[in-house]
């Protein structure tokens, strides 16, 4: 082997973490003939006294990533999956409290929603229900997200979503902006406003002594308020719409102190039909892929600390 | 330039086609304050007297792909988009009848569905409606597909969908199969059956003298029957379920003569929890990515000709 | 269970096939300290006497897809992987000859190429070689493809590649085309020509009595001739370039009778810099995503039959 | 419009930024017949006095994202693209110094490498060169990355790469780790070590008064040292290999103070061939997709500050 730098040499180890990413777990719960599904993608990241494994390769402090995978599946059986948040809390607590060298755990979860398949008339008479109790179709709309972080003392829970595409076909303008030598854009007084929402919201629940939020209801309500703010804001800029989406969540959900959005402006360009002798009265648009405007901001309850990082990660 | 083969040399041109792929067109229709959206991805492929452009580079018979793009947008204005099928029929007819060298047009369309955003209570009182009339969220479930082919005389319309993920959490078995030297699989008497449906169905409408189907209703009904057959079949093999899905469509929809499915068996493996002292009573599954069983078949009305190709293309 | 259609009812089964798709197999061969890698993604599709499994769910004729997966891995050990083509031939022959109900096997393989990592000076003295003999970096350029089909009597081998992006920054023109009411494109006398090559070529080897090609050399040479034809053709249309690419392969490789390409015209639009007082002398381009021209054609040895399907599949 | 929260209410704006993402610019430079390509994907993010546009929708301080796109293309002409880093520095300086409300610019760039196509013998005699001077094939290996941040006073440049897949087929072990109730993994004394490198390195160049690094040479050398460290480290853990990769860069490149890697452990599982009567002597592996171990760490020059964020972003 070649000579390489070793402890004592002037190269140090900084922040580090390890774990098993993207454990796909599906949990079925049976209530008689009626089945329920929780479908998650769980990623575990652990950190603590891990210098040696980097410097010398000693694994004496390393709980294998394979074991963290096994724990995800075992806990799905032992504790069930009441909500992604609650499941992540179980996991994070376990790793930090059961392994002395592990000081911090971060659990990230994606959740995919399913809805029931309607029964045919013949079958609904047969089974006495309008939906087949063990048959599902993936909803396919947004991917729900949560991230739980625990350092043995306090909790941070950030939930949210990605992949939710929305559009207002009117009530959006863009004018009055700075013009410089490189500006060619024309002002718009009635444009399509469309984006693919990536949003995260941070809960103010931080400790076991506080009552935890109702995670499922909180998600459903935050999503609803965000969508309504998008739909009901007469927009002079995508930034204004973003702020309203965040403010609506904070004003309606006491358990949430901070919201961050990353909103690509999915440009819909009005097609110039004049060369063909046609007038395009805001009817026909070209939906462009790249480039896209990208608007990102944090909206905060007054007095709250900003903790969601500027760059939202994909998972 | 280097010497290259020319006509006269023994290398011939075979099947060829050209066009503009993936024209993203969004069409807004206004009924007072109420807006409607059609959101399509349109691909044009043309063929005919095109030997010269391949042999010598002469473009004398070539309508540019850029022109076909313009035509998509212009027709969205001139004719509107009643259904993807009807829109594709307009386009195919135009290219074949307006350009003498073009003998055949194939239009492929992907359609993305949208649903309305519910209004907040305050706003629904204000606007007098439960939904914001110009605000939409992309449904995000399946991608609807159609392919229209026209040779100047007869039509072929094949519609369908992709990306629709479905699951039965019980009522699926797999046993009684062939065992050879390489077989290690254990028989299953209660397994999860999950797949991502890619399906195509061919209409028996072939000519302008026949009454065309109601394309929108046909899609909605074919999708419904297919989902119900998936849900209601007690499955001894994915092949059996596939056949039932196709047969249900053909039995209920007189306008459809042929159905083909490509169904990846999205394996959900029961996790072995015994090493942890736990019993997995069909509760905790690992959802695997690759490899996957892949089941493909055509289901036909008796007497109908099989014309959908064995390999379904992605678009 | 609900009533469903059964044999006797007028819904018939058409073409069908099944198997295990995307078996990722990595085979290491050791020649002393020097390791070699073959890295494949193998998909198996089988067909034959399979009516019963569709109609009644009887698996009596079904070799499980799990067994076909096992066979891929076992054969990688027993026979090694000399070339993707040779490996696919072993597999296809096995399935058809060992299972009476299986009449036809189609093996599709993707291959990912690797190259060795150069040793540092210190280490190359230590190991006596310029490259580390067990260390590799994935080449990452094209994905090599092959498809082997066997019906118990004759073979069809179609090889090729996808994902190979090429560009000529000059020597490409486009003019003299048809202009209709919807044409706005301006003629171009010096444009960028770029495409992402998806190509397939069919071998005229069909039977065990013929000497099989040297599959590895054939691939390397076909790829080289194709690239050189792309580079050396002064292009008046992408169709012309496509024909030259195919003709060059057929003229140089006696073992290949038919070539098909699907070539997206990856548009590079000259950016209009005049509003900024700048002249764009074919220097600055916008690389567009969608839509794209799509040019597809088959090139054939005179007298050969065209058998590669018009729609190239992704795998 | 519905009532929405306004300034004065207790919801505040936090960190925010905006700009045009993914501007695809291709720059051709001609040296006689010899062309050179720079192929970039440029994303602009700006921040500063932007409260009003969020609270009220006033765009008085907003340079449109469309203008930032135009600037990318205009600068490609005016200044050329010597390196991605130098190009990003030009852009960042421009936005911060030319627009009073903009206090900070962050430019992210992806670069795609191209190599020349070899000429055929006939043509190389004709053109007097072994390579066609205007013909290129995309290298397709890693994507090169850089991020330039400027606040009007000091610079931060972080470069790196993603998508580089590497493998050692031996010289990797994993044993001596923690075992708990959920541990089933067996110790490994000769395993494949494979990963897809995502790495970032921070330069200690921060101000115009310092001599800037040779960006092109720095990239080439950092990449080389990183690959050699991967190949030449006898690995007892992926963490150890990661540390060596970072240390090798810092020890050899004085201009770099900090390196961070995110290394998915691309598991290659030895296939159990015993059921088939075969011995798998480290020859046949199954390459798994998910889940994967994920190892992330920062390596620092002694005394340097850690500034690269723990979560590497994709672009």
Automatic annotation (TrEMBL), chains A, B, C, D:
Pathway given in the UniProt record: Purine metabolism; urate degradation; (S)-allantoin from urate: step 1/3
Any Pfam family: Uricase
Record's keyword terms, sorted: Oxidoreductase, Purine metabolism
Residues spanning the membrane: none
Family matches, as InterPro entries: Uricase
UniProt xrefs under SUPFAM superfamilies: Tetrahydrobiopterin biosynthesis enzymes-like
Span of the signal peptide: none
Annotated GO biological process: purine nucleobase metabolic process; urate catabolic process
Binding site for urate: 65-66, 174, 191, 239, 265
Taxonomic superkingdom: Bacteria
Residues engaged in binding 5-hydroxyisourate: 65-66, 174, 191, 239, 265
E.C. number: 1.7.3.3
Active-site residue numbers: 20 (charge relay system), 65 (charge relay system), 267 (charge relay system)
GO MF annotation list: urate oxidase activity
Gene3D superfamilies from the UniProt entry: Urate Oxidase (3.10.270.10)
Catalytic reactions on record: urate + O2 + H2O = 5-hydroxyisourate + H2O2
Binding site for O2: 65, 265
Protein role: Catalyzes the oxidation of uric acid to 5-hydroxyisourate, which is further processed to form (S)-allantoin.
Family: Belongs to the uricase family.
This protein's name: Uricase
Gene: pucL
């Amino acid at each position: 082997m070649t000579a390489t730098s070793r402890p004592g040499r002037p190269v140090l180890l900084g922040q580090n973490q390890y774990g098993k990413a993207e454990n796909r777990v599906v949990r079925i719960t049976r209530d008689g003939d009626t089945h329920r599904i929780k479908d998650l993608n769980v990623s575990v990241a652990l950190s603590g006294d891990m210098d040696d494994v980097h410097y010398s390769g000693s694994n004496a402090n390393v709980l294998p990533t394979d074991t963290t995978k096994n724990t995800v599946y075992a806990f799905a059986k032992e504790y069930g999956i009441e909500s992604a948040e609650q499941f992540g809390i179980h996991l994070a607590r376990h790793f930090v409290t059961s392994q002395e060298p592990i000081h911090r755990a971060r659990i990230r979860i994606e959740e995919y929603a399913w809805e029931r398949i309607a029964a045919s008339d013949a079958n609904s008479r047969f089974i006495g229900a309008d939906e087949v109790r063990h048959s599902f179709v993936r909803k396919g709309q947004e991917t729900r997200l949560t991230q739980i972080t625990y350092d043995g003392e306090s909790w941070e829970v950030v939930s949210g979503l990605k992949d939710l595409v929305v559009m207002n076909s009117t009530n959006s303008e863009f004018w009055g902006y700075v013009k410089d030598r490189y500006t060619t854009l024309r002002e718009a007084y009635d444009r399509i406003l469309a984006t693919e929402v990536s949003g995260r919201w941070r809960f103010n629940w931080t400790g076991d002594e506080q009552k935890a939020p109702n995670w499922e209801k909180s998600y459903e309500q935050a999503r609803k308020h965000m969508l309504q703010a998008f739909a009901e804001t007469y927009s002079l800029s995508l930034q204004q719409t973003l702020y309203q989406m965040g403010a609506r969540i904070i004003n309606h959900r006491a358990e949430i102190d901070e919201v961050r959005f990353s909103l690509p402006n999915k440009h819909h360009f009005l097609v110039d039909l004049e060369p063909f002798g046609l007038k395009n009265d805001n009817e026909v648009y070209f939906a462009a892929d790249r480039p896209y405007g990208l608007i990102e901001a944090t909206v905060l309850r007054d007095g709250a600390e900003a903790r969601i990082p500027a760059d939202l990660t994909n998972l």
